[in-house]
Every structure is written in C-alpha cells, then in structure tokens.
UniProtKB/TrEMBL annotation:
Domain Mur ligase central residues, every copy: 108-291
Role: Reutilizes the intact tripeptide L-alanyl-gamma-D-glutamyl-meso-diaminopimelate by linking it to UDP-N-acetylmuramate.
Catalysed reaction equations from the record: UDP-N-acetyl-alpha-D-muramate + L-alanyl-gamma-D-glutamyl-meso-2,6-diaminopimelate + ATP = UDP-N-acetyl-alpha-D-muramoyl-L-alanyl-gamma-D-glutamyl-meso-2,6-diaminopimelate + ADP + phosphate + H(+)
Gene: mpl
Name of the protein in its database record: UDP-N-acetylmuramate--L-alanyl-gamma-D-glutamyl-meso-2,6-diaminoheptandioate ligase
Record organism: Thiorhodococcus minor
Organism lineage: Bacteria, Pseudomonadati, Pseudomonadota, Gammaproteobacteria, Chromatiales
Pfam families: Mur_ligase, Mur_ligase_C, Mur_ligase_M
Length: 454
C-alpha cells in the first residue's frame, strides 16, 4: 500500500511514517519544513520527502492520505485531496487501525512529562527483554529514534490531548484504547483549541471510558483536576502515586537523583540515576507501577531506571566552555519551567542559573499563563526572554518585578551577546523552548568559545 503523509516532518507524523515503512508499505510525504534531523531519519528509511504542499504530490493517487493535525482547509494539497475524493484518515486513526488493535497499549498522558515518562516506560520494558514498540514525541537516548514496531504484544504511546485533525476535533488519545494508562497530571494548556480546563477534562473522561475493566489507570493522588475527571466515571482499577497515594517517594538526595520507592509505606525499590527534579521522581514511580501491570518486577524496573539515559531536549547538556554549561530543555509551561529550575537548583546549589526563555507555544503566545510565568522563573539568577515584535503581549511588563535580574530582547543575537558577556565559570545556562530557538544553543557556545579563547 502507498501512504502519502501530509505534515510528515513533525515528530508524531514522522513516527507514523517510520512505523508504516517498517510494516512494508511504500511511504511518501510532504511538509513545509523538510530539514534534519527528521528529514534524514525518514530518508534513511527509504521515505521520499517533498517540500511544500503541491497537489502534484498526490499524483498518481496514493492508496491513502494520512493527514497531520497541522493541516488546515485552504492548503492546496488538502483541497486537492478533498476535490479528488481521495481516501484519507488522521495519524491516530491510521495508528489504531493498522497497528494498535492487536497490541497491549500502554499510554502516557497528562499536561507535563509525557515524553519523558513514555521513554522511561519503553526503556524499562526493553531492559526486561520485552522488545516493546513505541511512538514517542521525542527521541529517547536509550533508543536513538522516536518510533519502532517492536514485538507483540506491548506498545508504548505518548498520548497527546491535542486535537486529531481538521476533520476530527477529538483528542488524539481517544483513538489509542490503552490497557494501561498513566495520567501524570492535568492543567490548562492548548488555549488555541480549548477554552478552559473543563473542556480538557471532558476529553480525558472520554479517554478513561476506553480503558477496559481488566486494565489499569495510574494517576496522582490529591490532584483536584484529576479527581474531577475520575468522578465523571471510571470502570477500571486504579493505582495512586504521590504524597498521599499508595506509591510514594522518599528522597535520599534532595535533588531527586537518589530516592526510595514506597508502597503503602514499605520500601520496595531504590533508584539512583543522573536525573533531577521532583517531576522526574514522580514520572519514575508512575513508570514502575505501569511496568508492573505489564509483568515487570519492581526490582527490574528500578534497576533499569537507574541506567535510563533520558530524552533529547529534556535537560540535555549541549556543551561546556570554561566551566559554563548550556542545557537545552523543552519546558514551555509555567509548571514545567518551575520544576525544571527547581531540579537544577537542587543540583547546582548556589551556582548561578541564567534562564533563557522563548515563549513559543500557542498558549504562551496567547499570554494565557502570564500571571504564573514570572513566578515560575524565580529560582533563576538572571532571566533573558525572547520577545519578538509579534509576540502579542508586553513581556517587559510581565517580568518587571525582577528588576535588573530580567532582560527582554527582540533579537536572538542580542540574547547571545548579553548572556555570553554576563557568563562566568560555574554558571548554568538553561535554554527553554519547544522549538529550535534559532539555533541559539550553538550560537551561545560559539560566542563563549570566542570570548574565552586563549
């Protein structure tokens, strides 16, 4: 079968392409931005890529067009697909119909931590010899790729609440029908498609309705937003994690790099790893519980987690110059920003942290979280915010309370110049964005090398 994928270079749709190719299908695809690393990964798999959305890309007609959720009416290829009455579906619909229907699906959902937790879970299953398939919205370092078929029955999927396609406004995760579900946390996000938290909760309720009575739902105890979703109706056994849950953590090191896991107050395992932050401790516990449901002993899970390498763009060390370290992190929501900074602060103690933020997500650009955004950066010693002229809100006003600690820039080059000039040995530069941020990481490294040469 010939699949043509519209929007193929996104992480999710690129993963769909790799899975379809592994199943033996011919795969081609179009995207407005065809560039590495996704383009090279796809081309290495024998997938033909086309720049733009020319209707000619659909000639001769493929057997099916798989439509990414970034596609909208008015895009030439979309209009041609509809005019010619070509068969089409969304990525999640294709995934369910062609791969997930025969698998034990372990889905990881929630506002924060999906990519990291899904990567942990896939790694634990892999280390246990179960050869899981997976589709993750990032690149786990333990695998080096974002998707693979694996062996039956287990398949780990990052379950996103964003909408499915222009013709299907349900959340993607409604298609996956998991047997094991992690619901990490729940906050308001995606303000471009949801009006309030209640709309998001309704989608999570729909997800919970698809989990069988022989399945398992893992969720935090004491979360009002999650409890409200559960109260809408739940027909599946649940395991709770967190301070008031059945599964809890006891920190041995305050930065979260060494901790005990307790079940009903009794120690059942210990994790010592290279990662930090209470959020990662919580992710790890949820992983252990979900893996246990799939038959992995707790001791095997904690041993695997102690060797978990992490995920690219999640507190990824991009380089070090003269004792100045530059980290890249995907954090783009006040809660994620705050927890990332908290973990780094515990690790580095009194060392200076220079936070560099690009408010890039649709929700950030709408200014929905402005009231919480400044507070989320309080642990940073210096704050540099990229505010291009089309940002849509006054970043200077939002960060005014920090005084000289905060600087707002409308050009990436100005950030690079200021940060490089201010940096000194021992500083930790934390760059946060859900995009490429104009290659600022490499630009900072180059500027630091030039400044400290000789």
């Amino acid at each position: 079968m010939h699949l043509h994928i519209l929007g193929i270079c996104g992480t999710f749709m690129g993963g769909i392409a790799l899975l379809a190719r592994a199943l033996g299908h011919r795969v081609t695809g179009s995207d407005a931005n065809v560039y590495p690393p996704m383009s090279t990964q796809l081309e290495a798999a024998g997938i033909e890529l086309m720049e733009g959305y020319d209707p000619a890309h659909l000639e001769p007609a493929p057997d099916i067009v798989v439509v990414g959720n970034a596609m909208k009416r008015g895009i030439p290829a979309v209009e041609a697909m509809l005019d010619r009455d070509l068969r089409y579906c969304s990525g999640p619909e294709w995934l369910r119909g062609n791969l997930l229907s025969d698998r034990w699906v372990l889905a990881v959902s929630g506002t924060h931590g999906k990519t990291t937790t899904a990567s942990m879970l896939a790694w634990v299953l892999e280390d246990a010899g179960l050869d899981p398939g997976f589709l993750i919205g990032g690149v786990p370092r333990d695998f080096g790729l974002s998707a693979r078929l694996g062996s039956e029955p287990f398949f780990v999927v990052e379950a996103d609440e964003y909408d499915t396609a222009f013709f299907d406004k349900r959340s993607k995760f409604v298609h996956y029908r998991p047997r094991t579900l992690i619901l990490n946390n729940l906050e308001f996000d995606h303000a471009d498609i949801f009006e309030d938290l209640g709309q998001i909760q309704r989608q999570f309720h729909h997800l919970i309705r698809t989990v069988p009575g022989t399945g398992l739902i893992v969720h935090p105890a004491g979360s009002a937003a999650v409890d409200q979703v559960i109260a809408m109706g739940c027909w599946t056994p649940r395991e709770t994690v967190g301070e008031t849950g059945a599964w809890t953590a006891q920190l041995i090191e305050p930065d979260g790099s060494h901790f005990r896991i307790l079940l009903n107050g009794e120690e059942v395992g210990v994790v010592q790893w290279a990662h930090t932050g209470q959020h990662n401790v919580s992710n790890a516990i949820a992983t252990v519980v979900a893996a246990r449901h799939a038959g992995v002993p707790i001791a095997a899970s904690t041993d695997a987690l102690s060797r978990f390498q992490g995920v690219k763009r999640r507190m990824e060390l991009r380089g070090e110059v003269n004792g100045i370290r530059i980290f890249d992190d995907f954090a783009h929501h006040p809660t994620a920003i705050a927890t990332t900074l908290e973990g780094l602060r515990h690790r580095v103690g009194q060392a200076r942290i220079l936070a560099v933020l690009e408010p890039r997500s649709n929700t950030m650009r709408l200014g929905v979280h402005n009231a919480e955004l400044a507070a989320s950066l309080r642990l940073a010693d210096q704050i540099h915010v990229y505010a291009p002229k089309d940002l849509g809100w006054d970043a200077t006003a939002v960060f005014a309370g920090f005084g000289d600690r905060a600087a707002v820039h409308d050009a990436i080059e100005a950030i690079v110049e200021d940060v490089a000039a201010a940096s000194r040995a021992g500083d930790q530069i934390l760059v946060m964005s859900n995009g490429s941020f104009g290659g600022i990481h490499d630009k900072l490294l180059s500027a630091l090398r030039a400044r400290h040469a000789g």
